[in-house]
Fold this protein.
Amino acid sequence: MDAGIAGIVGAAVGVVGTTLAAAVAGMSAQRHVRAEHRHWRRQLRRDAYSAFTAKADEVSRLLKETHTELIKSTVDFDLVRDRVAQARAALRSELADAQATVEIEGPEKLARMAGELSRSLAACATTVHVITLGQGPGAHAAVPEAEARRVNRFLNHAVAKRRQFVEHARNTIDV
């Protein structure tokens, strides 16, 4: 083989090799960027789901405190009104904000589940609020057992909805 042809073949091999190396490096970089983006999105979702769950737990804690008071033989309605007012305020502000973030981050199924949990907590808070209507400041009286059971059913429903939400959130994050 003459030196000219060998030089041309060598240059061609060099060009092809360089082109292939650049293509492989480009594809690797794209994969890396996509993996980083998926990680970033997963972190955003984890933060949104955690914030929503923490706020729902706070509202649930307040409502459980009201239920504990409602099943006593003499209910301190001032305490119940205070706790339910705190729960309703959290439902309208912090929990609503956290739910909006879940709705934005998605997916749709988790956004729906967040809404179901929020509505369940809101129904419980409304039920407790209705029980306190007509009870003046400083009132201490017994609450009908059926009303206390009704509040308990709402709380149990909220606990089940929370469990569902957390299970699906874990599955979504691990994908």
Summary: The first strand starts at residue 75 and ends at 76. The CA atoms of residues 13 and 38 lie 37 Å apart. The chain is about 85% helix and 0% strand.
